[in-house]
């Protein structure tokens, strides 16, 4: 393959994968309310969090200004290091391997990149956040109390109406504005089945529509529901174990403004690089790097559910 042909193939591969990622992004990673670039930085400040400010009544004319000390914490995302994938295509097959839009190679690469970024999203949701003054110095774990327990309501159960009512109560206490942003509950197959077994969810008198007609997960009680195969290690190799670390499933509850995503490399790739030590087979290469961090612990919750046996 001539050099100009190699360059054109590289460019076509890169552009077509990027186009597919823009047209059909992953299921989860775009849910983060803040999206930032990490280019050139080993860690990125994602938010400044100030304590509550309150106005005090002025009591005298021409008196001293009322100053108030207010706390300030900063959240950071650390550069995690890139992840990649590479495969070889034998020279005999290279000429018939297309990098055109929607070709298997382009679609397969795009799917792998989406899967990586979605997995990073869940790992960041459950994982360690970082705070500090000028840099990330203090580790912040997921708040242990931010859950609706598996036995809420008296006995261990799956996703139930009382659990949803309690979740809404807790989020309202945390000043989550349901009109401004609807919290999103991620449902595995068991959670989706539990939802469809809640009579008031499927009942037209309470819903105003008929969710069972087409199986679509309709918003309800101010919540949005999003299906994701959370426990599948093929789909989520890093975070699948965090979905069920013990006896119960954990359904993430996402308020978008409570999460930030930093991207160092959305996608970078090359196609058709000849490898002299592999009989000049062509290397197909893809790389990505991103991180997700919680920015407000009060907006990150989960519902414990009993798995369907």
Give the topology.
Layout: H1 3-23, E1 34-37, E2 43-50, E3 72-78, E4 83-89, H2 91-94, H3 104-126, E5 129-132, E6 138-140, E7 147-148, H4 161-173, E8 184-187, H5 189-196, H6 199-202, H7 204-207, E9 224-227, H8 240-243, E10 249-254, E11 259-275, E12 281-294, E13 300-305
Parallel strand pairs: 1-11, 7-13, 8-9
Antiparallel strand pairs: 2-3, 3-5, 4-12, 5-6, 8-10, 10-13, 11-12
Helix pairs in contact: 1-3
Residues in helices, as a percent range: 25-40%
Low-confidence stretches: none
Choose one word for the global shape.
Answer: globular
- Summarize the main sheet: 5 strands, mixed
Radius of gyration of CA atoms, rounded to a whole number: 24 Å
Strand content: 25-35%
Q: Give, in order, the helices and strands.
A: HEEEEHHEEEHEHHHEHEEEE
Spatial arrangement of strands, main beta sheet: 7-13-10-8-9
Give the end-to-end Cα distance, rounded to a whole number of Å: 56 Å
Please count the helical segments: 8
Give the averaged pLDDT, no decimals: 88
**How many strands?**
13
Task: Give the structural class.
Answer: alpha+beta
């Amino acid at each position: 393959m001539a050099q100009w042909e190699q360059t054109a193939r590289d460019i076509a591969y890169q552009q077509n994968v990027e186009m597919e990622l823009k047209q059909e992004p992953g299921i989860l990673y775009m849910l983060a309310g803040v999206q930032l670039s990490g280019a050139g930085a080993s860690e990125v400040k994602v938010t400044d969090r100030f304590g509550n400010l309150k106005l005090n009544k002025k009591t005298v004319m021409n008196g001293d200004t009322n100053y108030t000390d207010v706390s300030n914490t900063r959240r950071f995302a650390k550069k995690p290091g890139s992840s990649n994938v590479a495969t070889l295509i034998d020279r005999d097959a290279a000429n018939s391997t297309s990098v055109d839009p929607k070709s298997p190679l382009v679609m397969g690469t795009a799917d792998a990149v989406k899967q990586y970024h979605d997995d990073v999203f869940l790992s960041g949701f459950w994982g360690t956040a970082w705070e500090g003054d000028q840099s990330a110095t203090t580790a912040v774990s997921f708040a242990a109390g931010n859950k609706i327990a598996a036995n809420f309501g008296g006995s261990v159960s799956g996703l139930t109406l009382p659990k949803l009512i309690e979740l809404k109560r807790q989020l309202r206490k945390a000043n989550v504005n349901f009109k401004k942003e609807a919290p999103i509950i991620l449902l595995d197959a068991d959670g989706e089945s539990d939802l469809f077994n809640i009579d008031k969810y499927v009942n037209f008198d309470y819903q105003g529509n008929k969710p069972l007609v087409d199986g679509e997960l309709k918003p309800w009680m101010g919540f949005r529901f999003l299906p994701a195969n959370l426990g599948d290690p093929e789909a989520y190799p890093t975070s699948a174990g965090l979905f069920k670390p013990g006896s119960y499933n954990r359904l993430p509850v996402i308020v978008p403004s409570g999460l930030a995503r930093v991207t160092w490399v959305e996608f970078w790739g090359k196609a058709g690089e000849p490898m002299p030590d592999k009989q000049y087979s062509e290397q197909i290469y893809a790389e990505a790097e991103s991180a997700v961090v919680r920015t407000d612990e009060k907006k990150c919750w989960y519902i414990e559910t009993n798995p369907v046996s």
